[in-house]
Amino acid sequence: MADVSYVLPELVTAMKDYKIVRDVIAGQSAITRARTDYLPFVGSPQKRVDVEKYSSYLLRAVFTNFTSRTLQGLIGQAFAKSPEVVLPGALSIIEDNIDGGAVSIQQQSKKVLSDVVSIGRAGILADYPMTSSPVSKLDTLTGKVRPVILFYPAEDIINWRVEVVNGIRTKTLVVLREKYVFEDDGFKKVEKNMFRVLRLVDGKYSVEVYKETNTGLEKTESTVFPKQNGKNMDNIPFEFIGSQDNDPVIDPSPLLDLANLNIAHYRNSADFEELVFILSQPTPVITGVDEAWVEEVYGGSGEILLGSSSPILLPKDASASYLQVTESQLSFEAMQHKERQAVALGARLVQQASVQRTAKEAGMEDASEASLLLSAVTNVNVAYARALKNVSLFMGVTPSEDLKFKINTDLEILRLDNAGRAQLLAEWQRGILTFSEYRAVLRRVGVATLADEEARGELEADALSAALVSVDPGLQNDGVTRADNNSPNPQPEAPISKNTGKAR
Known about the structure:
This protein is α+β, with helices and mostly antiparallel strands and 504 residues long. Helices cover 38% and strands 18% of the residues.
């Protein structure tokens, strides 16, 4: 029987990088559990004393997780505003439960985006349960039979093929690894792997399921040919999502370089903490004594007690002192150097103030983050748009133009700072930009909200009000209402001068 559990070699290679990034994001516990994967063993593993020293060496190492904070910052940028969600009619049932497991579309999309930004890959599958009898509208509305969109991490998308069909590159095979409950005694569950095989067979979409058992892989049911609007499908409704493109090719992990740097920083920390421990333990040194003297003064134990309450009685010409290694900053400086490198890679450090950025570095960091995040968000939005259309067709509903799911692309890191705003205004005033172009930028960064014509009309009305007030100070700032002379402050506030036709 064919091996449906076969994993493509390129994925096997990529999973080594995925593990690094996921362990780093998971933090100190995951890194410490991995032991020598990230912190080399010091000494001989066969010597008990070296094993104990390594355990202490490992325990003292501090993992400063700037990779995870960077990821959190990026995802926070995208979800600072709630995604736009418009699921008309019967589709509304999936907004709060998109996968049949009470996960909302916003929660799932956040996980998808997190994987795309961190390891560079994820996938979603639009699916609909096959039933032997027709499905009523009531069944769908009550959730008895419902469409789902399922999320698959990159490690579980184990095999795929793309072939040219009718002159178009088309997915003809996707194999997804899942888990199922093999045994359950009411207290302990035993899980095994299950493989969902999606194929195009003679131009028709088919689904097969295989489960691992004690005797090997077994096909659990007959091949299913899902339909949309009563017709066989001619495509596999699975969407690859990458950090660069939404195709089956594995994209590089965006946070891999930062994760590797984070691990190197962790190793420097281990060395530095070891050095601090050694330097904090002064070594007593006693010279000019022999075995006979120790026997005479301290008896057979040979123990010399130290401390202010235990003075040391020494013979003539003997001496006692403490030996302390000179402090070294090499490991600490290496850590600081890596923090500078982390800034160059766009890291949001735990203590941002500890590493000062130049204006150029800040600009490069923001541009890098914006480029990475915008690409990932766009790819996720495109994938969900396709998946939602497939869900509509599964339900026998023609996809509506109102159907929408869009993660926010109005990112804070794209907003202009004060210097940028001043430069933009100067360029408009010099005639380099038109009024519409100027306002388009202001709308993109969230400063302006009105359409151009509406804004122009309000600006002209404001300018007229200001002119009337300057002629008749008895008018309020609206240019119509007269000031109440009986009020404690009968004079209206001086209006702000405005130039007709120009944005405020």
